[in-house]
Amino acid sequence: MSEVVMPRLSDTMEEGELSKWLKNVGDTVAKGDVLAEIETDKATMDLEAFEAGVLEQQLVEAGAVVPIGTPVAVIGDGSGSAAKPAPAPAAEETAGASADAPAEAPAGVPAEKPSAEEPAASPAEEPSRTASASRSSEQAEQSSASSAGKPRTSPLARKIAKEHGIDLATLTGSGTQGRIVRADVEAAISAGTGSLAAPTPSAVAPAPAPLGADQQRADVRVPANRLRSVAAKRLTQSQAVPHFFLTSVVDVEKLLAFRGQVNEALASQNLKASINDVIVRAVAVALRQHPEANASWVDDADGQAVVQHGRVNVGIAVATEAGLLVPVIRDADRKSLGQIATETVALAEKARDGKLSLDEMTGGTFSVSNLGMFGIDQFTAVINPPEAAILAVGAASPVPALRDGVLVDVPKLKITLTIDHRVMDGAVAAGFLRDLVGILEQPLRMLL
Amino acid sequence: MTELTYRQALNDTLRAELTRDENVYLIGEEIGVFEGSYKITAGLLKEFGPKRVVDTPISEEGFTGVAIGSAMLGLRPVVEIMTLNFSLIAIDQIVNHAAKMYGMFGGRVKVPLVIRTPGGGGQQLAATHSQNLEVWYAHIPGLKVVAPSNPADAKALLTAAIRDDDPVLFLENLGLYNTKGDVPDGEQVAEIGRAAIAREGTDLTVVSYSRGVVTALEVAEQLAGEGISIEVVDLRSLRPLDRVTFCESVKKTSRAVVFEDDMLSYGVGAEISATIGEAVFDWLDAPVRRVAAAEVPLPYAKPLELAAMPDAAALTKVIRETLAASGYRK
């Protein structure tokens, strides 16, 4: 019998909401099965079983918010009584351990094998034919193994997890008797799972212990996951594109007011449009008016050409723990703000869960990247080939302006267009950007 | 560079040192007229005469004591004890005299003594003649214990042992005498207390010494065929013990297996794995495992003797288990 506790899923997490039970009392659970969903200050995570058995008790109701470390469930042999001393899982462990060879036993020489007469309960009694048989290290390890709840971890796994701010309690071990080993931690790092503390840089790294003057911190090598390798390849290809950049400052006072009104209207549908959703919509409308910006340079068997795309598919850069993903809103020019908001939320969630289909990530004709939420004033984005341009959106911030002779705060934001010069020349791109700014500053135009 | 047997490398080195330094002399049972039970001293009596190559009665305690006394007075005796098992008869001389003089006389007396002796089983010599007692001596401050695994190290370490001012137990192995290897020509003096990386690898470290290194290298070669990269550390010296080399290796591989011919309990493997646990705990991805002999008096019957001794199959099995225990995937 073992208690399942509310795990610490991020560095800043102090309590979690057990939002939903996925296993019921009496269900048989395997190691790694998801028992429940937990909502933290950052995200919704799975609560996994670290031991196999039967879910005997649910100690909290769905929706309960409890501090980390609080027992939320009991897994046992199915006999149900929480008070009963627990020979069952221990026996199971022992049987399992002896079945898959004495992986932790001393030297695997024939004389170490237990004889048939020996009771099954002491599989590793030392073989010595002398009177003073010692107890083996396997027995020692097993007797120390049964301390409930705490997962087995290798020292190296602990070290790497600490360096990357990964909570071992959220991982499932693939080593002997479920030990969490380096491979498990590295897999979690490359998959971006395992509760990397938080997306903000300050929270990702746990405060490192101060180093002495004569100590040096070792380099940490984080193997590239598939996403990072693909991104590295694509972005390197992008360097071959002749880029130029255009920046405009947008007065977003009306845009913010417009978004407020839209959200009042959407409230009845339980929807909310973000600034980014409004910008995506504005971009889509501007692209419809400027097919030359919704284009790609091609160099194929039919010769060199600029292909103007019939559909306006806008990619949205989404930061995930595994890396940058760019899901695509198809036909954004033909979708309402409400539809764009709904789709964006769904795609971003899929992106963070690593569940985007290939179809949802391809076919973009233009991308939008927004770092405004990080307080970035202005930046340039790298083109996502074969698209011809990408819009980098900074943070809206109040700028003093004279209006009717009165000094007022006007919220403004900077947008920077990165353009493939093969597709568009400066004047053409500037025309597109001017109209985009016009739409953003007169947002009713995006309804026309 | 010349290819020599381990036996020939020893014989050549004794000859070179007898020639170089007139204070060097050999003493032991059957080493002169009979040229040694394992022919390590072949030809030397004829070459250097009975004052430099001294045959003794069967009296280990006696001739070891003679050697210690002559060493205290400035000679450099090289004692041959026919097998390590017989050193038990001289153990009081070795442990309570040779090892203690320098310390107990405040550094005013040195004992520049070498005891050459082969250990190990596998020759059907039965339990009393097949032991690996080197760890008894490695336990004693004041002694040095070296155990070369190949002809080149046999030459360089024997030279170093003869020139060292401390008593050195020079461990040979019956199973190694006929092994061959390239030996650098000319004078070679090893640094006693320095381990070697016998083979570089990245996935797992095997630590061994003496005959065990040969087996470890065979296993490493075989596993390399499967893409598994084994690093083999040859301790070469059990005292002083080069803890840095094997710990650095484990920092690289995160997995370690100790392979020794001797019994597991209180053995070399215990010392190595304790050191790894103390020094590089944070780099371990799996428990350190030991492969050692069955804890029985070594049987005489060949199949039983082979079954009791740790071999390539046992080492391979534990390497695989250690890799599996830490989620190793090729």
From TrEMBL, chain A:
EC number: 2.3.1.-
Keyword Cell inner membrane: no
Example of a GO cellular component annotation carried by this entry: pyruvate dehydrogenase complex
Keyword Nuclease: no
Compositionally biased residues, Low complexity: 80-148, 197-213
GO molecular function terms listed in the Swiss-Prot or TrEMBL record: acyltransferase activity
CDD domains, sorted: lipoyl_domain
Disordered: region residues: 78-155, 196-216
UniProt KW keywords: Acyltransferase, Lipoyl, Transferase
EC class (word): transferase
Superkingdom to which the source organism belongs: Bacteria
Cofactors required: (R)-lipoate
InterPro entries listed in its UniProt record: 2-oxoA_DH_lipoyl-BS, 2-oxoacid_DH_actylTfrase, Biotin_lipoyl, CAT-like_dom_sf, E2/Pdx1, E3-bd_dom_sf, PSBD, Single_hybrid_motif
One BP term from GO: pyruvate decarboxylation to acetyl-CoA
Record family assignment: Belongs to the 2-oxoacid dehydrogenase family.
Protein name, UniProt field: Dihydrolipoamide acetyltransferase component of pyruvate dehydrogenase complex
Automatic annotation (TrEMBL), chain B:
Stretches assigned to coiled coil: none
Gene3D superfamilies (UniProt xref): 3.40.50.920, 3.40.50.970
Gene Ontology MF: a single term: magnesium ion binding
Cofactor: thiamine diphosphate
SUPFAM superfamilies with a match to the protein in the record: Thiamin diphosphate-binding fold (THDP-binding) (SSF52518), TK C-terminal domain-like (SSF52922)
InterPro entries noted in UniProt: THDP-binding (IPR029061), Transketo_C/PFOR_II (IPR009014), Transketolase-like_Pyr-bd (IPR005475), Transketolase_C (IPR033248)
Keywords: Oxidoreductase, Thiamine pyrophosphate
Superkingdom of source: Bacteria
Residue span, Transketolase-like pyrimidine-binding domain: 4-179
Any one Pfam family match given in the protein's UniProt record, by short name: Transket_pyr
Protein name per its UniProtKB record: Alpha-ketoacid dehydrogenase subunit beta
